[in-house]
């Protein structure tokens, strides 16, 4: 998680996209015809990555080598394997994967999977890759459900709506840790809907989730959700980056991920306000909305809610992420 936090939430300077990729990586392929240890290969590619300005060079090379050797992390490999010579096939595979990293492809897409809240999720570009901050959003929702009986639905667990399901990270984590819960997961991108469905099946959670292709900005979209409600919770990590900041994103993000899942409009509020407008129609009272946002948003959301008393929503709490930034909001519906 440290790797992803540093690579993708630090704005990087320099040219974006694949044009800046290292095209002469084959000059570093002398390993292919010889036998080298896993530790030696990690050191070799760390040096190559550092020379080409690839962020988190050692972590990237360790993840790739570990993946080829059948492990999640290099540290989880048995020490005896660190110095065991790799086969030519393994060396070739590592070289091919490292060539993608030289093109600034995110490690998650290179490996084809990533762990989130203890679940291994399939990752496919351009579906949004879950960030470590979002694990904290899930943890906050779990805390609230544990503390508030009112958040528990008629079936003994809450009925949860996730807006913008992406890979299914939030929805499936909540299903996994709330055995009696049910989730309605929506996303307007078919690639995301398909990936969430596949991840649900891989984790055998498909019986408690309904995955719907839906654009929450479309007029009357809430009518498509009414048959499944009323909901106890709405959870979302919506697009919230200010449009003016999009050009500063790292090449890993800008060239490979779906930018629609990141761009929140002029003040990063476009989808947030749609969710807040939609939620009162679907929520029980006192139902809750949990959002991941930009640190500038708590004040903006608070002011916006004050301007819309008809929604009967109140900003209950703001929580900081592990870097001390105001990152999460809890908004609650009150009775009219």
Helix-strand blueprint:
Blueprint: H1 2-9, H2 38-51, H3 57-68, H4 79-82, H5 88-102, H6 107-111, E1 113-116, E2 119-122, H7 132-147, E3 159-163, H8 169-177, E4 182-187, H9 190-202, E5 209-213, E6 231-236, H10 251-254, H11 270-282, E7 283-292, H12 297-306, E8 313-320, E9 326-333
Parallel strand pairs: 3-4, 3-6, 4-5, 6-7
Antiparallel strand pairs: 1-2, 7-9, 8-9
CATH superfamily grouping of the largest domain: Vaccinia Virus protein VP39
The biggest sheet, with number of strands, parallel, antiparallel or mixed sense and barrel status, is: 7 strands, mixed
Structural domain count = 2
- Give the oligomeric state of the chains in this entry, treating copies of one chain as homo and distinct chains as hetero: single chain
Q: Report the structural category.
A: alpha/beta
**β-strand amount:** 15-25%
**What is the mean pLDDT?**
89
The Cα radius of gyration reads 22 Å
Main sheet: strand order? 5-4-3-6-7-9-8
Tally of individual helices: 12
Helix content: 25-40%
CATH class of the largest domain: Alpha Beta
> Overall 3D geometry?
elongated
CATH fold-level name of the largest domain: Rossmann fold
């Amino acid at each position: 998680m440290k790797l992803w936090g540093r690579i993708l939430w630090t704005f990087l300077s320099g040219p974006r996209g694949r044009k800046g990729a290292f095209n002469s990586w084959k000059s570093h392929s002398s390993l292919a015809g010889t036998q080298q240890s896993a530790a030696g290969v990690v050191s070799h590619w760390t040096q190559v990555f550092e020379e080409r300005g690839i962020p988190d060079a050692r972590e990237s090379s360790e993840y790739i080598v570990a993946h080829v050797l059948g492990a999640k992390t290099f540290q989880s490999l048995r020490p005896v394997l660190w110095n065991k010579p790799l086969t030519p096939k393994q060396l070739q595979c590592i070289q091919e994967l490292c060539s993608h990293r030289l093109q600034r492809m995110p490690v998650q897409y290179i490996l084809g999977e990533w762990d989130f809240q203890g679940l291994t999720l399939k990752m496919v570009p351009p579906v949004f890759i879950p960030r470590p901050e979002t694990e904290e959003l899930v943890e906050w929702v779990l805390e609230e459900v544990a503390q508030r009986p009112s958040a528990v639905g008629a079936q003994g667990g809450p009925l949860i709506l996730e807006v913008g399901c992406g890979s299914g990270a939030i929805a499936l984590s909540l299903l996994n840790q709330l055995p009696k819960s049910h989730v309605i997961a929506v996303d307007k991108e078919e690639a995301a809907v398909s990936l969430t469905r596949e991840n649900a099946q891989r984790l055998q959670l498909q019986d408690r989730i309904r995955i719907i292709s839906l654009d929450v900005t479309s007029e009357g979209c809430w009518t498509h959700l009414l048959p499944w409600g009323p909901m106890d919770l709405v959870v979302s990590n919506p697009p919230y980056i200010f449009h003016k900041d999009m050009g500063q994103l790292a090449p890993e993000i800008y060239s490979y991920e779906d930018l629609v899942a990141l761009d929140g409009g002029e003040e990063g509020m476009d989808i947030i306000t749609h969710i807040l407008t939609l939620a009162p129609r679907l929520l029980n009272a006192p139902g809750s909305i949990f959002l991941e946002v930009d640190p500038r948003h708590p004040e903006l959301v608070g002011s916006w809610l004050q301007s819309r008393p008809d929604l009967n929503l109140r900003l209950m709490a703001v929580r900081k992420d592990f870097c001390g930034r105001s990152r999460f909001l809890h908004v609650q519906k009150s009775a009219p």
